[in-house]
Amino acid sequence: MTVTGAPRIVTRRLGGPAPWTLASYLDDGGYDGLRKALSMTPEEVREAVNVANILGRGGAGFEAGRKWGMLAKSEPVYLTINGDESEPATFKDHMLIETDPHMVVEGALICAYAVRADQIFLYVRGEFALGLERLQAAVNEAYAYGAAGGDILGSGWSVDIVVHPGAGAYICGEETALLESLEGKRGYPRIKPPFFPAAVGLYGAPTVVNNVETVSNLPWVMRNGADAFAALGEGRSKGTKVMALSGHVKRPGNYELEFAKVTFRDLMFDARLGGGIREDRQLKAFIPGGVSSPWLGPQDLDVLLANEKIAEVGTMAGSGAVTAMDETTCIVRAAWRIVRFFHRESCGQCTPCREGSGWVEKILQRIENGQGREADLDLLMDVCDNISPGIRWPPAQTTICVLGPSIPPAPASGIRMFPDELLTHIREGRCPFPPDRLPGRVAHV
Amino acid sequence: MSDPTPQPATTTAGDATAPGSAAGHTGREVPVHLAPRPVITESAVGSPPPPVPRSPGEMVTVTIDGRQVVVPKGQLLIEAAEAAGTYIPRFCYHPRMKPVGMCRMCLVEVEGPRGSTLMPACYNPVADGMKVSTTSEMTKKAQDGVLELLLVNHPLDCPVCDKGGECPLQDQTLAYGPGESRFVEEKRHWDKPIPISELVNLDRERCIQCGRCVRFADEVAGDPLIDFYERGDRTEVAVFSATHPFASYFSGNVVQICPVGALTATPYRFRARPWDLDQVESTCTSCSVGCRVAVQTSGDQLVRKIGVDCDPVNWAWLCDKGRFDYEAVNSPERLGAPLVRKDAELVEVSWAEALDTAAGGLQRAVRAGGGANVAVIGGARLANEDAYAWGKFARAVLGTDNVDAQLGDGVPADVLLGLPRATIDEAASAPLLLTLGTDPKEELPVLYLRLRNAARERGLQIVELTPTRTGLSRHAAVTALHRPGELAALVQAVTADHDPTGDVAGVAAGTIAGIRAHLVRAWQEAPVRRGRPAERPSIVVLVGRASLAEGDAGVRAAVAAFSGLPGVAWLSGLRRGNVHGALDMGLAPGVLPGRVGLDQGRGWYESQWGAELPMGRGMGTAEILAAAARGRIGGLVLLGADPEADFPDALHAVKGLAGARFVVAVDSFLTDSARKADVVLPAATYAERRGTFTNLEGRVTHLGAIVTAPGVAWPDWMIASELAYRLGADLGWSDLEGIWAEITRVSPLHAGVDRVALAGAAARDGIVVPAGDGGAAIRPPRPLDPMADPGIASAELHAVAPTALAVDVPPVKQASEEERAPMPPMLTTPGGPAPPPVPVEGDAHRLVSRRSLWDAGTWVRHAHHLSPLARAASAALHPDELADLGVAPGDALLVSNDRGRLSLPAAADPSLPRGVVAVAWNAPGGPASSLVDASGRVVTVRVEVAR
Fold it and tell me: Which stretches of B610-732 are DSSP H helices?
């Protein structure tokens, strides 16, 4: 049960003994959702998903049912499950794949049935060694059990599943880069138009790309009905959401919460959840939806965890990764750390992202090292503006994909929320935060 | 001429379905019994792409900088703006490649339903009602930003960069960029230039990751030997390993299209600064494709050739041989003075003495044995005017018809000249291209690029009848590998009125049936496909010699079999320089200028030239050499010809040259054959003399002159004039313009082709002759895109004659009826019936010998950056045969027959059938011509392990 009393949908089997095995999964009603789906027509399954109104859990929050409805009418149709979760502070799919791989497989199968897919690709971040092992084992078990491959569960319907490990590039989580990668090419996001893989996807065929958590909801929806799912949450944000809480809280971790019923304050401070800031310090700021989202401050703690509510305060729910920063956090270092990630992961196609990410990182590094100039704040904002004009949310972009606009939020939030702290770095010619007060290896970025 | 504008479909559906529907064609009906059936042999690359869907011609209205323009729906914004006169800056976009949207330089503000956004103009199509601003604050900010970001990691080493002065990054930074950079940190560092091939160097620090080179290599050249490595701002262009360099025949193009100085050509590096270059627009004479080029010089030396975007021909591409062969023009080995043999040695003499000696020798020969006692071999190196001058000199002054521009390695002129010709555009847009074994990748490289593009992007089906695989085989629908020497039998089976019951010439019956199905499909599709009118060819046959180790009987049989079929047009695969110009000017036995038969044109030309023409058809090169060997040739002129190297039968050539009593060589180099001449006259080459060139389509283009010839070398026409003068004749003109005026007056092929207009900057595409009833209209070329063709200052491109600059495309001169009436008819049907089959007998292996781009030819040998690229000769066999012989690749094999013996390293080629050994033609270290005899039978050899 979640803190609001709603059932746990995708994390309900966590904590049991070896939940990744088929035996354990079957004990908990595993593959009943698929059986239910197979007893319905694909249209009926799609309709149920429409009623459930499952928002995509990968970050963009696009309704899964709508995405499926956009498929071009041609064959073959491919289903690709995006498990290339690689962003710092985002670790929900990692957990789902490692602990409940059969749920991911069953969800993918239900989805494939609904969209009449001819082949399923499970694209998983290459660094998830254990997850890949367990997912492949789950696929093998599913084949042996008759839930995958030919004549699935006696229904006459067949589909194959391939587990495909990524090769270490964050950009391959961008859906079109993922498709390029699957095709064996460089992981370059594709130019749009065509805008959606549903029209032109893998090998040019109509393709559904869904997040791991998104399809993990499907077995529960099939078993318990779309209405039960839609009864949870509020507005567009239905069901539950796994929040990956990290940073300076006492109890970091994944928490499945009913959508739109819990605030950031609850998440970080409720004793059953984050349990408050470590050493009972003050919260300085927090990242609400992954490191590509604009930051919020303590004044925004009462915003509800719902896509549309978070959008109202100028940022995003994203993939549900919340990072708390306490008063000992050096804002420059935090922004530098985040930008460094995007710099290293920029694919290099578009000039603004390829060159801008490195330049912004170098400026932040300079400021942190005490070599900043006051003009650097305007420079930072202007370089960011050249990557994402207006530095607004939702962002505009000068790049092919949204990795570019992911660069400005951290430095821009830092400058907008804590201008004095940056100026202190510049005027004092040093970072006011002693390195030894910083946890872990962040000091060495 | 091709018509690049969309044509509405004009034929009805009924045309599409009736097999005999090629009603618009002349010739015999399509044999209806050739029923369509599944194709048996598809190439390994899979099914062909569907034809490109045509825009139905719908137009949309867009507003660009406040001006409304009407453009075709679906056109890219960047193209629409350019057509409307608005240049949008760009780096990665190239009009001849697919857009990728990487550099983001072309961002423009577009007003949409949800407010203004920045959109890349290079891959977004126009939409009706779109409002675009290329000068708004938003656009300018984006341009400023992208340029500043591009310069973050770009070194400012412009003063020592080859691109400085013609650099799109420099130019666009000045035009659209910020005045200065705010970047104060350290830039990215890499080792300064690293070679990625023998010809290309890469400076990764300068690279702006536009991907033009990488895309060119994959998309255009089909040699994906370079790609991006690493990611982000550590992205670098790289070869896959040090042992796999960027060894593409087309590598120089990446240097040309690189928008910065990241890729530089070894032959050009540090040779010149762009602002010191002079240039002239000209035509590449390296092969017969006739790519348009800008020839650039510094200090009276050629330093660079750049491909000019000529829509019907080369699309701005060049092969490396054409691009870098200018090193041979600059070669210190060039002949700069006349030579005369004195006491067995060739010694330098004055022109007067050399001409007197040459004229005297030729005169003695004529006196001794009449015109039949003299002969002229060669002419493909010459410009059209030179060839005309020499043809007139030979027939009207020497009185001989023994003239041949080909060296026994081509297709008889009277077979070729009567065939209906296709243009490259027509071949590319036809449903089917059938090759008789020519390997365009090796012999006509830029034609290969065009055909490859057509096969990949336009649905052209290629059927190859060939003894070994070619560069085109990867893109062919069917590659029918026939036994060497049995092309005639295969062609007969393909065009017979029934499917074969068994294998023919080593080709499976099913494959032949598949080819026949392709032919039928082409006939069915041609009338409606992409709305082409019915007079466009359904089937284009690329006619040329596959192997020089057999005669031309197979090709002649193929011509006889296909020439009567409806909708068939021909693309000549003769490869040597201006060979088509030479043939059109009458440098072939029995052919007078303008593709006129000797007998049909005798009266006309005798009246025009005021001289008696020789009676009876003269001899071709093989017969001339045979006659010379028997002592029947008293005077032989080698017109830029080197029979010892180029005639297929080396022994025959050597004997012929030895037997000719008096030999005059007119050449730019002292070739093996020229060394044996009695008089050697130095000739100017391209870029040293003006003229016109005729390519394999019959397209006449201008050859510019920009450097002085070495020493006292002369243009060939001048030598002909002076020799004629010494023989008491006046050829009738004293300059090129005079020659051309006479050509257009007397040649039915060239009537109306205005030379002054051809030399104008507007005549980049030239004129295809015969020009037809529409006249020789000059189609203005599309403007050069300075970003697509950096290095060519289009405004500075000037034609040679100062007067030409003042001429602004004059109206086409139509010959009046009186002028035209007495002209003789041009050849319309190929001469002669199909030859009888040549029996195959002899040794166990049949020899196949084909040309490769890099060989031991005169021009490659004298271009010092190209000569190391020639691969040493080898004897290639199927790996199983190597195993049977117990040898590994590289081991020595002895290849011999009754003509000669060669010791060659073994090579494995799994595509070769058993019983066939392939030895490259004219490769360094193994003259295959020593095994070939001129009888025309397929050469057989013994293959043994060398002891």
Answer: 621-629, 643-646, 650-659, 716-726
Residue by residue, DSSP assigns B625-642 as HHHHHTT--SEEEEES--
Buried/exposed code over B723-750 (b: 16+ C-beta within 10 A; e: otherwise): bbebbebebbbeebbebbebbbebbbbb
Answer with the residue of higher pLDDT: B2 or A204.
A204
Tens digits of residue pLDDT in B916-937? 999 999 999 878 999 998 888 8
Q: With left for phi above 0 and alpha for psi between -120 and 50, is residue B89 left, alpha or beta?
A: beta
**Residues A159 and A147: beta-carbon distance below 8 Å:** no
Residue B627 near residue B633 (C-beta atoms within 8 A): yes
The pLDDT score that the predictor gives to residue A60 is 85
User: In this model, does residue B38 exceed pLDDT 80?
Assistant: no
Non-local CB neighbours of B787 within 8 Å, separated by 6+ positions: B89, B90, B91, B93, B94, B168, B172, B259
The sign of the CA dihedral B665, B666, B672, B675 is positive
For the stretch A290-335, pLDDT in tens is 999 999 999 999 999 999 999 999 999 998 999 999 999 999 999 9
Q: Which residue has the tokens 């700021």?
A: A285
Q: pTM value?
A: 0.92
Query: B209, A354: Cβ pair inside 8 Å?
Result: yes
Distance (Å) from the C-alpha of residue A348 to the closest C-alpha of chain B?
4
Q: What is the 3-state secondary structure (H, E, C) of A189-204?
A: CCCCCCCCCCCCCHHH
pLDDT (0 to 100) of residue B796: 39
CA nearest A379 in B: which residue? B182
Q: How confident is the model at residue B531 (pLDDT cuts 50, 70, 90)?
A: very low
Are B64 and B472 in contact by the 8 Å Cβ rule? The answer is: no
Residues 6+ apart with CB under 8 A from A64: A49, A54, A55, A56, A111, A210, A214
Residues of chain B contacting A400 with CB distance shorter than 8 Å: 101-102
Q: Which residues of chain A have a CB within 8 Å of the CB of B183?
A: 359
The mean pLDDT of B507-525, rounded to a whole number, is 93
Q: Which pLDDT tens digit goes with each residue over B800-850?
A: 333 333 333 344 444 444 444 467 888 876 655 666 666 666 678 999 999
Greater model confidence, A2 or A286: A286
Residue A101 is classified by DSSP as H
At A273, the amino acid letter reads: L
**Residue B685 pLDDT level (bands cut at 50, 70, 90):** very high
CA distances from B460 to B7, B312, B427, B514, B865 (A): 18, 16, 8, 16, 36
Q: Which of B243, B260, B246 lies closest to B218 in space, CA to CA?
A: B246
Distance between CA atoms of B691 and A244, rounded to whole angstroms?
Answer: 77
Which residues of A have a CB under 8 Å from any CB of B?
Answer: 169, 171, 186, 191, 193, 343-352, 354-359, 362-363, 366, 379, 383, 385-386, 389, 396, 398-400
Binary contact (A359, B183; C-beta < 8 A): yes
Half-sphere exposure in the Cβ direction for A66 (13 Å, CA): 9
State how far the Cα of B432 lies from the Cα of B430, in Å rounded to an integer.
5
Distance between CA atoms of A275 and A209, rounded to whole angstroms?
Answer: 35
Alpha helices for B243-350 (secondary structure H): 252-257, 320-324, 326-329
Question: Tokens 């019907």 — which residue?
Answer: B312
Flag if B153 and A357 touch (Cβ within 8 Å): no
Q: CB–CB of A359 and B101 under 8 A? A: no
Three-class DSSP category at A260: coil
For residues B602 and B611, give the distance between their C-alpha atoms in angstroms, rounded to a whole number: 10
Q: Which of residues 158-197 of B touch A (CB under 8 A)?
A: 182-183, 185
User: A150 is written with which tokens?
Assistant: 């030919």
Does the pLDDT value for residue B440 go beyond 60? yes
Q: What is the ipTM of this complex?
A: 0.95
Interface contacts A/B by beta carbons within 8 Å: 99
